[in-house]
Amino acid sequence: MRKIFVKTQNVKNFIALINSLQNKPDGVSRMALVYGEPGLGKSRTALWLAAQNDAVYIRSANLMSGRWFLEELVEELGEIPQYWTSELFKQAVNKLIERPQMIIIDEVDYLAGDQKTIETIRDIHDKTNVPIIFVGMTLAEKKLQKYRHLYDRLSEIIQFKAFSVNDVQDIVTQLCEVEITEPAVNFIHTQANRFRQIVRIISRLEAVAKTNNIELIDENIIKEILKNDSRQSFENNKRAKHIHAG
């Protein structure tokens, strides 16, 4: 499988969002939200774009406090965190004013229940005017709406959506090292709507093609492979339940 970052429509929308934030005039908020169901490549895209734009990437964690967040931010900015929370905040702000960097905060759902942390992030934005992008799950927008002072600053909001047939075509064409017919790609689209699922299918097709010297995968071959895999999975589960019961 080729190691290529595929620019699906979701990725293109994320790139456009970043460009829009970076070109906002002074006085206009540079905060944004990217949200959607799991498995559509939000985190993968956020990491890739952070590297492309020399941005700070922070993955939120369960129970993350405002102090914990500030420590992560200061470390990502290349500084040794101070002890006092007030000093941590000043460190982050001063460093971002000295060298502005976009901040991408992934898994923002973990922070959405902590008002102090959310307000701290808003204060950092207001004092530095650096672009800040939240990345979250399906309910992230709804969760952030209760913080009106922050939500009103979200000048860009996009939702990652299920892959279209064209997206699947791009993913398969760019990643798969075996040629796959268009009807076969259309069938993949009906069977998988998550990036990991599509990659798993591609990997399986490549393995079968290599073993059987197949140069072109058509719809019938894919159907047979997936049917056999489903049957094997069922037998394995049945065997496991029998062993457990015994």
How would you describe this structure to a colleague?
The protein is α/β, with parallel strands linked by helices. It folds into 2 domains: 9-160, Rossmann fold (3-Layer(aba) Sandwich), CATH 3.40.50; 165-236, Helicase, Ruva Protein, domain 3 (Orthogonal Bundle), CATH 1.10.8. The protein has 11 helices and 7 strands. The strands form 2 sheets. The protein has a 5-stranded parallel sheet with strand order 2-3-4-1-5, with helices on both faces. Strands 6-7 form a two-stranded parallel sheet. β3, α5 and β4 form a beta-alpha-beta unit. α3 (66-76) packs parallel to α4, α4 runs parallel beside α5 and α8 crosses α9. The longest helix has 27 residues, at 219-245.
In short, what is this structure?
57% of the residues lie in helices and 12% in strands. With 246 residues, the protein is an alpha/beta fold. It folds into two domains: 9-160, Rossmann fold (3-Layer(aba) Sandwich), CATH 3.40.50.300; 165-236, Orthogonal Bundle (Helicase, Ruva Protein, domain 3), CATH 1.10.8.
Uncertain runs are 234-238
What general outline do the C-alpha atoms trace? elongated
Q: Tally the helices: what do you get?
A: 11
- Count of individual beta strands: 7
